[in-house]
């Protein structure tokens, strides 16, 4: 088995009946390495593409969801805020025309 490291997923597409997932790594920018920048700049590079049939992708999404729930129940992760709760917590003003 070959191990692959990725910082995150940058893109997911559905092409010709297959799911294509781009796995990326983050590298510090030259400015941040030399101390001349603010340290926030990182270059993103697509390293791998993972192809899966739609059924396998859906099963893997369920497996990840179960794992996230387990991590929340163990106190390792916090429960993500519901979209409606996040909207209510927003401090940006809301126009009365949209209420």
UniProtKB/TrEMBL annotation:
It comes from the Bacteria. This is Uncharacterized protein. It comes from Magnetospirillum molischianum DSM 120.
